[in-house]
Each structure stands twice: as structure tokens, then as C-alpha cells.
Amino acid sequence: MTTPIYDAPVGHSRAAHRVHGWCSHCPGRTAAEEVIAWRSEAADRHAAEDWIGDEGGPFDASTAWRKCPECGVAGALSVVTVTVQSTSSPKRAGGWAYCLNCEAVPQERGVAHAG
């Protein structure tokens, strides 16, 4: 039978040595330091999941309220325009239109004038 290879000294935390390179049993380290190191590592690992919104991101959307070409009701057509920030200037990335009155979905010609 072979002796298993450990990446930490006997009696030390293998997980802490694998992640941090040390544990609270190492000389000059405390349990509080190890707890803080684990919390910091978890915060870094989950930072992307905790991200809220796209503040400062490359995408933006604007809504304009227009007269619906189908039913003629003023202010019923919601025209949404999505833009993306390129290196030079914002570029139109897409959009849609939807009438809250008659539920019409006018084609691209209505969306293009959201400007």
C-alpha cells in the first residue's frame, strides 16, 4: 500500500492549502485570518453573480411614445430602440414597437423613426 500524497502537512487543512497556500494551523496564522481568506475568496468567486444592472455597460435602450399606425391612438405605440456603444459612437442594435391599445406590432418602418 502506498502512502497518499498530501498537499498540506499532516493535521493541516488540505482545502485551505489548496486554495490559499496556507491554513490556520500554519505558524504565524490564526483562525480569523483563514475565515477572512475564505470569505474573500468566495466574494471574488461570486462577484459576477452579484453584478446588478448594466450601469456603464455598452447597451442602452430608450422608449418613445407615438401614434399607432394601425388604430390611430396617439401615445399608445411604445417604440423601443436599443443602442450599443462602439468605439466611435452609439450604433442602433435593434428595437421593437408595440401598441398598448390594439396590440399591433408594426414592422421595422415604425421602429426606425424612434430616433
Q: State the end-to-end CA separation.
A: 76 Å
Strand percent estimate: 15-25%
**Helix fraction bin:** 25-40%
Structural class: alpha+beta
Report the count of strand segments. Answer: 3
Per the principal axes of the C-alpha atoms, what is the gross shape? rod-shaped
Main-sheet strand order equals: 1-2-3
Largest sheet: 3 strands, antiparallel
Helix-strand topology string: HHHEEEH
Estimate the mean pLDDT confidence. Answer: 80
Radius of gyration from CA coordinates = 28 Å
Number of helices, where a helix is a run of at least 4 consecutive DSSP H or I residues: 4
Which ranges are low-confidence, i.e. pLDDT below 50, for 5 or more consecutive residues? 110-115
What does this structure look like?
- By secondary structure, the chain is an alpha+beta fold.
- Among the domains are: 14-50; 59-99.
- It has helices at residues 14-19, 31-45, 47-50, 108-112, and strands at residues 59-66, 77-85, 90-99.
- A three-stranded antiparallel β-sheet has the order 1-2-3.
- Strand 2 (77-85) and strand 3 form a beta hairpin.
- The longest helix is centred in the N-terminal third of the chain and has 15 residues, at 31-45.
